[in-house]
Design goal:
26% of the residues lie in helices and 30% in strands. By secondary structure, it is an alpha+beta fold. It has 2 domains: 2-73 and 205-245, no CATH class; 78-201, no CATH class.
Length: 246
């Protein structure tokens, strides 16, 4: 009976983790370039029982283990904005931005020009070009960004937005502000790195799917809680009856 309680608790812990992932996806349904995550779980079979003095051996117990979350790199919807500073990243490439903690990676192509003439993201992080941050002079006009990330004005080419890929994008870590960090060095995207100017990639979160997952998790959590409660009542009843017999 005690083992059944432990199995139920392991399920509840996993469901709580999945609920957190779903909530984060729903909170970012309107975040530019956001990539959703999905929970991954694994079955753990307990090889031995705590009591081994029975004539018939106990069967193996199946627990739930949280194996982290998988990053969904599916392309989000492309929305035309007409703003020449906006770019939508195609494929699995990432933009590189400069933060106080070093280079970070994002799909947020909502660029702006700050007071110093630097192209930055909507959160104010300088966008990295092949030679560092890209500067635009106050007198320059006709800014455009080509499919390969080349930034041009009436004075010519001002730089090229740096696009990178990763051998294992699933190892990317979320760091808030729609940024990712990686312990592995990125690789130049090359011909695979393409952007669409005057457009933004919206979040790839499917709100209907996430709401369905949310209802499933709540229903399962309620069912497991009911089972644990009945098991606890059954244990209490057994203890009382044993005391009466004694």
């Amino acid at each position: 009976m005690q083992n059944a309680l432990f199995v139920g608790v392991s399920s509840q812990v996993a469901l709580q983790r999945e609920l957190e992932v779903i909530a984060n996806n729903m909170a970012n349904v309107s975040t530019t370039g956001f990539k959703s995550r999905n929970s991954r779980f694994q079955e753990y079979l307990m090889p031995v029982a705590s009591a081994d003095s029975f004539q018939r051996p106990d069967r193996r117990l199946s627990y739930v283990i949280d194996q982290g979350t998988a990053l969904d790199l599916g392309q989000g919807p492309i929305e035309q904005t007409g703003n020449p500073l906006h770019v939508a990243v195609r494929g699995e490439s990432f933009l590189v931005v400069q933060t106080p903690g070093g280079d970070r990676f994002t799909r947020n192509g909502a660029f702006e020009i700050n007071a110093q003439g630097t192209i930055v993201t909507s959160d104010g992080y300088p966008v990295q070009g092949d030679g560092g941050p890209i500067q635009i002079g106050p007198q320059e006009t006709g800014l455009s960004i080509g499919p390969d990330g080349t930034v041009s004005t009436n004075l010519g080419v001002r730089g090229r937005v740096r696009l990178v890929t990763f051998a294992n994008p699933q190892a990317l870590r979320n760091e808030g502000a729609n940024l990712y960090a990686s312990d592995a060095a990125p690789q130049p995207a090359g011909l695979a790195g393409r952007v669409e100017s005057g457009a933004l990639e919206r979040s790839n979160v499917k709100s209907v799917v996430e709401m369905t997952r949310l209802m499933d998790v709540n229903r399962t959590y309620t069912m497991v809680s009911s089972i644990i409660s009945r098991l606890d009542d059954l244990r209490g009843t057994a203890i009382r009856r044993l005391a009466d017999v004694a």
